[in-house]
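Cross-check.
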Amino acid sequence: MAETESTTTQDSTAAVETEPHLTQPQEQVEDTAAKLNNLTLRIWPLSQRTRDAVINRLAETLSSQSVLSKRYGTIPEDEASSVAKSIEEEAFSVAGADFSPDSDGIEILQMYSKEISKRMLDTVKSRAATAASDAPPGTEAPSGEQISSLSVKEEA
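Predicted model, tokenized:
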């Protein structure tokens, strides 16, 4: 049995020596490791494609039924697009002011996200307050659903 194991070991060693494509040379492994060590992932500044996707999603959130709209109302689609663009541009500007080329951008991306959320909430709250103050005296302040229908009526 020991003789069989010895023969098998010799055969597999010979196969590796005659077929170098089965193993990577040490140099290639070291080069790949060096490249990976020098690899940096930068997520800031965002690409225009990513920013456009954020704007589209924000406009959709502002103009469609959601938990937010039930409380504060929706914004008409055409207005929501311009509001979303404005919110994103402001957030990008604020976050970008703190960007350092030495950082990977994760903190800046978090700041950008928080700025968008804050500005979106401020916008819908402001619109709801304006709609409530525009209501005739002696009436109850409109709910989010009533604000949404007021916005649609104003467009017509």
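Residues 106-133 form the longest helix (28 residues). Residues 46-129 form a domain with the Serum Albumin; Chain A, Domain 1 fold (CATH 1.10.246.200). Passed to J.P. for a second look.
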